[in-house]
User: Fold this.
Amino acid sequence: MQLSLTLPRAQNDRLGHAEPTWQAPSTWAPDACTPPGADKKNAALFCQLLRLLASRYRRARRVHLVVDNYGIHKASLTRKTLAAFGGRIVLHFLPPYCPDANRIERVWQDLHANVTRNHRCKTLGRLLDNARRYLDSYVWKRASRRPIARAA
Assistant:
């Protein structure tokens, strides 16, 4: 039994505040994915997640995580925690910029091509409305196959 869990980097809102965006298998209870104190992403929080995974999947020989190159994933505390598990939890790092492996990059590229590049909005609010409208109608399961269409 092996688990694959993707932890995308936090996305910043328009004010630059990062929100943790941890994704987990559908078999998890939602509150199990967000440990207390998740408002501050740091190595200690990530290590807490590693311990949670290890306890939740005790019978798994290995747990594989695909992560980006965020500093907490390579911190000394993270390395010590992984060493304590004796190779039972394995981190797989995405290349620093790899839109083919990181699907959200395709979405941002499509949003930029269809909404933000060469826009004619007179206010930032109007541009954000266009972006929100575009993302609300986006076909998420087929991000790479969506034909390019101009947002209103």
